[in-house]
């Protein structure tokens, strides 16, 4: 069976076609600027030259129509007809408390996604548009929703409740949900394989470090805690997000800067984090370069970043009562040689000892711990699309 994996953003559609007989990727692609003049589709079939098509696409349905045309194109397509596509898997950000695993999408599932728009206003609407566009164009196959929040639904109330009046949880479901769950799921299972242990017997700390960043503590096959919360703003310092701060700062700056709630939300989500601290960029590579050239603010930004990650490692060590391995993944985690080294410095009291030479690797699955390190240090490239394809295949069967 061949699976089409779709990740619909507000003005983009990312896709892959995966042949589940051997889990090979037949094609990857990106539709950009959906609903904006100058739309493009970049289609990369395996073993062939990439194809770029420029064509205005007014909405997600038009974008998906073009994707389906490309997939069956005699010259650069990867299937003879859409009948070869057995099911479609949709990356969906927020499923609230309703879903602890992937599900076949029906009207009730779409209602839950719609109900979660208030708490995921940037992601759930385009996810839903992508689902409905694909259902319209491919009505005879199963469509599966794979939720970023699902993997974290094993958390206990002690770790997902906020110290707020209980009625805001009862009435508005204000609690910690966590995100990047598909990535944490994939790399933690791969880590168990690398340890040679059953997933249910492991204590694992996963670090998804990209422009958005989160960590998870996993024990006995369940997420104990994760750093993102009610929204993706909580937790680590990120490219443009502040991460953990004193909530009083929000009210103080709203008053001093004359911001309304929408402006404050933008301020802490889009103007803070590494960008706000460094004044250089939200891209870790630019900040590292500036820091190496003596930029003091860039140096401080990196030190704040390291300290937040180290703090969560210590936190999770305590909650897990030890750890078998820590896992670095996502853009910064997979490629940031110096970032990984700085994070692991001075953690030998926890049994974390990095081999600096082994660590000189980018984007490869490898153990970079010293031989005598009690805790293994893994670099594992994430593969969220494969998780989506596997869940879709399982449910479609």
What does this structure look like?
The protein is α/β, with parallel strands linked by helices and 397 residues long. It contains 14 helices and 14 strands. The chain has helices at residues 60-71, 107-115, 124-137, 157-160, 166-172, 181-195, 247-257, 261-270, 273-278, 284-292, 296-320, 330-335, 337-344, 384-396, and strands at residues 2-8, 12-19, 24-32, 40-45, 51-54, 85-92, 103-104, 142-147, 203-209, 213-219, 222-226, 325-329, 366-367, 376-379. The strands form 2 sheets. It has an 8-stranded mixed β-sheet, sandwiched between helices. A 6-stranded mixed β-sheet has the order 11-10-9-12-14-13, sandwiched between helices. Helix 11 (296-320) packs across helix 13 (337-344). It is globular, with a radius of gyration of 21 Å. Homodimer.
Helix content: 25-40%
Terminal CA distance reads 9 Å
- The helix tally amounts to 14
Task: Output the radius of gyration.
Answer: 21 Å
User: Which band does the percent of strand residues land in?
Assistant: 15-25%
Low-confidence runs of at least 5 consecutive residues: none
The average pLDDT score comes to 94
What spatial form do the alpha-carbon principal axes imply?
globular
Largest sheet: 8 strands, mixed
- The tally of beta strands, per DSSP, is 14
Strand order of the largest sheet: 5-4-3-2-1-6-8-7
Structural class: alpha/beta
Could you give the order of the helices and strands?
Answer: EEEEEHEEHHEHHHEEEHHHHHEHHEEH
Binding site for substrate: 91
Subcellular location: Cytoplasm
Family: Belongs to the acetokinase family.
Main location: cytoplasm
């Amino acid at each position: 069976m061949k699976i089409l994996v779709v990740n619909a953003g507000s003005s983009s559609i990312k896709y892959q076609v995966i042949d589940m007989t051997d889990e090979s990727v037949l094609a990857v692609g990106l539709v950009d600027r959906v609903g904006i003049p100058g739309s493009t589709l970049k289609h990369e079939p395996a073993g062939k030259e990439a194809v770029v098509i420029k064509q205005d696409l007014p909405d997600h349905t038009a974008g998906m129509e073009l994707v389906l045309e490309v997939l069956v194109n005699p010259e650069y397509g990867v299937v003879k007809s859409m009948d070869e596509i057995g099911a479609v898997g949709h990356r969906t950000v927020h499923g609230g408390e309703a879903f602890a695993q992937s599900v076949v999408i029906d009207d009730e599932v779409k209602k839950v996604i719609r109900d979660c728009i208030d708490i995921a206003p940037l992601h759930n609407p385009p996810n839903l548009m992508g689902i409905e566009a694909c259902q319209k164009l491919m009505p005879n196959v199963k469509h599966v929703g794979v939720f970023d929040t699902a993997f974290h639904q094993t958390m206990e109330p002690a770790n997902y409740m906020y110290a707020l009046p209980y009625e805001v949880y009862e009435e508005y479901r204000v609690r910690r949900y966590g995100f990047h769950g598909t990535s944490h799921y994939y790399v933690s299972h791969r880590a168990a394989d690398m340890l040679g242990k059953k997933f249910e017997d492991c204590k694992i700390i996963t670090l998804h470090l990209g422009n958005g960043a989160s960590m998870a503590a996993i024990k006995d096959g369940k997420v104990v805690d994760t750093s993102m919360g009610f929204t993706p703003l909580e937790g680590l310092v990120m490219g443009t997000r502040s991460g953990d701060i004193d909530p009083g700062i929000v009210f103080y700056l709203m008053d001093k800067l004359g911001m309304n709630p929408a402006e404050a939300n933008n301020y802490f989500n889009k103007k803070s984090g590494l960008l706000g601290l460094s004044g250089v960029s939200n891209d870790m590579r630019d900040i590292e370069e500036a820091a190496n050239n003596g930029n003091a603010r860039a140096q401080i930004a990196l030190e704040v970043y390291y300290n937040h990650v180290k703090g969560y490692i210590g936190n999770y060590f305590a909650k897990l009562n030890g750890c078998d391995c820590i896992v670095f993944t996502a853009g910064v985690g997979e490629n940031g040689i110096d970032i990984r080294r700085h994070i692991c410095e001075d953690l030998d009291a926890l049994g974390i000892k990095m081999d600096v030479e082994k660590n000189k690797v980018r984007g490869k699955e490898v153990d970079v711990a010293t031989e005598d390190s009690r805790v293994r240090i893994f670099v594992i490239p994430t593969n969220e699309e494969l998780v989506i394809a596997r869940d879709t295949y399982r449910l479609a069967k």
